[in-house]
Input
Amino acid sequence: MCRPAAMRPDPSGRPAARRTSGWTLDGPVVVGTDGTPDVHRAVRWAAVEADSRERPLTVVHATRTESGHPHLSLKGFRQAKDHAVDVLVEAEALVRKAALGVEVVTVSCPQETATCLLREAGQEGAVVVGTRGHGGFLGLLVGSDALRVAARARVPAVVVPPRERDRPAGVVMVAARDDRDREAVRPAVDLALRRGASLCVVSVWIFLENVGSMATMFDDPSELGVTEGAEAARLVTRLREDRPGLDVTHDVVRAASSAAVLVAATADAVVIGARRRSLPVGAPMGHVSHAVLHHAHCPAVPTPLAGQEPPEQV
Output
């Protein structure tokens, strides 16, 4: 079972919380804000992330005025500009109130949110976005802005829900079944090390999905499950060898839905390999990623898998 951190001494002598994995960052941590309380959690999460990485924090407010508003007067444009200033000042005050010494840069951007955030992040930054701000629906927790960012990002992206646990769970969860998910494991290792948490590798085995028509009445499901979990077990063994200072647990779960297991997670973050669409029609992300972004109770980190290039526009 997943358990809170029990960090073991690292033979390298390096402090685990500052070590990096394959998810290094030379650019800023970029967060979007519209001034709503739900999005304030994303700002605070991004500030802690920037502080732990010793990177600057860029806070962005998108006014969307560049796209053209035929019924917006000159006065309306000025009001939008003034509102952006107020929102950004408030966001910077939130960071200062947390007593974090991180460098803060504020940006008012006239384009739509995803374009603004991804441009500021560039090729070496990270993006943090809240799941719902102005225009969100209570029953649909992830807004269109958050979904566009998650689907288009070529850099690390974190989607923060409006409500999180009051206290850290001490666990970072990652969904992985074999080496094809190693791109998702890297940011999970990085998050766990820097936040002093344990890493829980969850391998969800769906019997009918993984066995299908090859199963017969004479097959033993438990034996098939052992085979399915063997690849993930080898992945976990390598993780423990590479990161001796990190507490790594492994859960093989038999369930009807991968998304249901991940959504119910009690964790500080859940990292998933994001399978993105290759055609300009249909859902921008796979159904598991989409469900986790909609319903997870902790920050979700959709990570592009090898060969999964995000679309230019969503």
The chain has a mean pLDDT of 78.
